[in-house]
Design brief:
This protein is α/β, with parallel strands linked by helices. Helices cover about 40% and strands about 25% of the residues. It has a six-stranded mixed beta sheet with strand order 10-9-8-13-11-12, with helices on both faces. Strands 2-1-6-7 form a four-stranded parallel beta sheet, sandwiched between helices. A three-stranded antiparallel beta sheet has the order 4-3-5, with helices on one face. Helix 3 packs across helix 4. The longest helix has 16 residues, at about 120-135. The model has no long low-confidence stretch (mean pLDDT about 90).
Length: about 280
Amino acid sequence: MKLAVMTDSTAYIPADLRDRHNIHMVPLSVTFEDITYEEEIDITTEEFYKKIREAKELPTTSQPSIGYVTEKLEELSKEYDAVISVHLSSGISGTYQTVISAGSMVDGIDVYAYDSEMSCMVQGFYALEAAEMAAQGKSPQEIIARLDEMKASMRAYFMVDDLTNLQRGGRLSGAQALVGSLLQVKPILHFSDRLIVPFEKIRTRKKAISRIMGMLEADAEKGKELNVVFIHANNEASAAELRDSFQKKYPAMQTSISYFGPVIGTHLGEGAIGIGWYMK
């Protein structure tokens, strides 16, 4: 069986890394007024943060159309027997369900859609693992079982400077956002049951980041090797500082730096910081 691996653009796997691991990608889009950009294709993350600072209104985001995904699967069916397709949480986007629907419409290829229940490079971890296993000739069932195993230890926490964007975009309830704004807290957020929800309410940015780092280090102390990613919204220096601090204490751990691109950055806002990890 020849097996393809696909993900969507919100995994934010750099193009060279996608190419190296032969990972196919379908883009989500961000629309400023009446101009729509496919992220990772028509607009870079740097261009996005510049545009959003100048924009009068918050841009909107959209998933790939079923027609687009169907065409992509038909293209893959000419070369592959099956595809494992890893996507951002079905609780915040319909992309995962669109891939399932498109898969039922395309002949000649078996489609295994996988709900990461998260997003960004944490989602990317699953796609990269699937690609490595596919290259080793593993079956779709073996790969899905491994992804489920990873999910059992996968953690991701993030904080934003302003909850307004999450509330406007419908990813956080108005009541939760209002309480956060009134109390001037910096809530730590995470995914629970596929949705973005507050994890803890912290008074300052410094304390919120310290709390997330504390949870990461508690897992690091368990003695198992972690794969850790530090994620930033146009603030790479902060992510690098956290990565360096962690690496100094735990030099054997695998670490990387990633980013919140246009679609996720629309909802989190500039300055957001996140940390994700799993036990290898």
